[in-house]
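If you are new to this repository, start here. Below is one unmodified record pulled from the training split, so you can see the exact layout before writing a loader.
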Amino acid sequence: MLHGAADGEWRGQAAIAFRDLLDDDVRPKIDKCVEAFDDAHSALSTWSTSLDGYQSRAANCEKWAAEAQADADAARAVLSDLPAKPAPGAPAPEDDRRESPYWGARSCAASGQSNGSRARRPTLLR
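And here is the target side for that same chain:
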C-alpha cells in the first residue's frame, strides 16, 4: 500500500490528499524506521557472533584471577608463619638474607608466586 497504491482504486480529492500525505509524510518516516531496524539487526547479529568469544575470555580472566588470588594468599600465609623480621640495626642472621625463609616468602608474595608456580595471565579483551 505504501509503495504501490494504484490511482484507480480510490478517486477524488480525498484520495489525492491521502496519497500526498503518504508520499510526503508517512512513507519517509516508515522507510527510516525500516532502515533503523535493519541497522539494529545487523549490530545485534555481529554482537551475538562475538559474544561466545567474549564469554570465553571472561571465564579465562576469572580463572586467572582466582589462581592469582590463591597464589598470593598462599604466599601471605607462608609469610605470616615466619618469625618477625629483624629490627633495623640488629645483628644480621648468620645465613645470607636472600637464602632465608623470610626473604623467599616476601619475594613470592610480592611477585604473585607460591610453591614455585607463577601466576599466568590470559589473553585479555582487545
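Two things worth knowing about this chain: Residues 13-80 form the longest helix (68 residues). Residues 99 and 105 are 10 Å apart (CA to CA).
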